[in-house]
Write a structure and sequence with these properties.
Oligomer: single chain
Shape: elongated
Largest sheet: 6 strands, mixed
Strand content: 15-25%
Distance between the termini: 37 Å
Length: 466
């Protein structure tokens, strides 16, 4: 008698791996009296066993230590073998608002086994959802074979691994009528991909309609990455002020605008505070409020970074531009960087690819930002490229704000005004390229809207079934 397991991203598969690199029906593993047969089902990105591509039906000698790749997604062979032939995991009930699982008698659910830590994991509710988080256990907590690094939403039928001990929650742990019932024989089991596991500072996907405490706690409970992101601002400010070994503040203003865009990019990509899964979840009606709160937190982080950078640079370089106007322009430029970063995250199947794209983006922003104009006058091509980049508009706006304050000063004895040379004339001539501060802000706003719309469209289009 043969037993088969179909793997893919479609919900009718036995093992659902819901990531972009996995095809709807990707491959099928069959066990018969002679062993195992692995069949690639004409997948787009291929099926591999220990690095060797499988084409059609191939008899394989699978062991628990082997690795199967579905495109770029690694899947342990042990996971597939356990689906084909395994004993059902014991069921534990969940009552009340939260429950701690561990070996200590004081725990809500005591499991006295060697692989279980004293306080191993915590279950808690947010709305109609149940989440689980690891309590720094020795052997780790897993959901459907994927290690939990932060709070993760549990679906009915998910298998929880406490070290090597597997359990499932009782079906009536979910009290809402619209909760999916546990998988019965013949129904699919959902694989939680590695990219969907929250990182140290990521927020959960559960909606928060009353207070922002769960969202903030998810960030503040592991503050290292948040502190690292904030530390970028004073570090960048001191570096920028150090570049001001010239009488002109122009290069300082250019790098300040570029730094503001970088803050948004870094918060979105390197900060890893909002991954594609959470963005897609937030596009649904029950996740919209949580997504809005996360975006507000990101914007607030960008604003704080811009404020720190401006205060330090303005004092060290003796800049004269009005602080509120400059800060508003910097925050707008940082918001554009944030939208661009989220678009990069959505388009990149894996974080390392997104990180690799960042230097390319920064180089483009630098090359066409406008600092080179007096030495190499702008051509039609470079001008067209420049008009689509936020660094050009942030640079012009900051330069005009500073030039307006410096153009008319007072003589040393206070008897007559002294007119300084227009700082912006060499970079943005008044008769041709100059647009004005309001136009610069509008251009940044238009770029932000375009990037945000593209991010939402691509994220919505990548939902299962779209």
């Amino acid at each position: 008698m043969s037993i088969s397991v179909t793997i893919g991203s479609r919900p009718d598969c036995d093992l659902v791996v819901n990531i972009p690199s996995v095809s709807g029906h990707h491959c099928r593993l069959t066990r018969d009296e002679n062993g195992f047969v692995l069949e690639d089902l004409n997948s787009t990105n291929g099926t591999f066993v220990n690095g060797e591509r499988i084409r059609g039906e191939v008899r394989v000698g699978l062991t628990a230590t082997d690795t199967i790749h579905l495109g770029s997604h690694a899947l342990s062979a042990e996971r597939l073998l356990s689906l084909i032939d395994r004993e059902p995991a014991p069921t534990i009930p969940f009552r009340g608002a939260e429950m701690v699982i561990g070996r200590l008698p004081a725990c809500d659910q005591v499991i006295d086994l060697p692989m279980i830590s004293s306080r191993h994991a915590r279950l808690f509710r947010e709305g109609d959802r149940i989440l689980i988080e690891d309590l720094r256990s020795s052997n780790g907590t897993f959901v459907n074979g994927t290690r939990v690094e932060g709070p993760v939403v549990l679906n009915s039928g998910d298998e929880v691994g406490l070290g090597s001990h597997r359990v499932t929650l009782a079906p009536d742990s979910w009290t809402q009528a619209d909760v999916v019932q546990p998988a019965s024989p013949g129904q699919p089991v959902f694989e939680t991909p590695q990219a969907a596991v929250p990182s140290l500072t990521e927020m959960t996907t559960a909606p928060s309609t009353s207070i922002p405490a769960p969202e903030l706690a998810a960030i503040l409970s592991r503050p290292r990455r948040l502190v690292a992101l904030l530390f970028q601002a004073p570090l960048a400010a001191f570096l920028i002020a150090g570049l001001g070994g010239t009488n002109s503040p122009t290069p300082i203003l250019f790098w300040l605008g570029l730094a503001a865009i970088w803050f948004g990019l870094a918060d979105a990509v390197l900060g890893n505070l909002l991954d594609p899964t959470r963005l897609r979840d937030g596009l649904s009606s029950d996740g919209a409020s949580a997504l809005a709160l996360r975006l507000l937190i990101l914007v607030a982080l960008c604003a704080l970074q811009c404020l720190l950078a401006w205060v330090i640079v303005a004092n060290l370089a003796a800049l004269k531009a009005p602080g509120l106007a400059v800060l508003a322009l910097l925050v707008l430029a940082s918001a554009v960087g944030l939208a661009l970063g989220l678009l990069i995250v959505v388009l990149s199947p894996r974080p390392p690819l997104a990180w690799a794209i960042l230097p390319v983006v920064v180089v483009l922003l630098w090359l066409f930002g406008g600092l080179w104009r007096p030495v190499h006058p702008m051509s039609a091509v470079t001008g067209a490229v420049s008009s689509f980049l936020p660094s050009r508009w942030a640079f012009e706006g900051l330069l005009l704000l500073e030039a307006d304050q410096r153009q008319v000063a007072t003589s040393a004895d206070g008897s007559e005004p002294v007119v300084d040379r227009d700082l912006a004339e060499d970079y943005f001539p008044a008769q041709s390229d100059r647009m004005g501060v309001k136009a610069d802000a509008m251009a940044l706003g238009a770029i932000f809207i375009g990037l945000a719309a593209a991010t939402v469209f691509i994220s919505a289009s990548s939902k299962p079934g779209q």
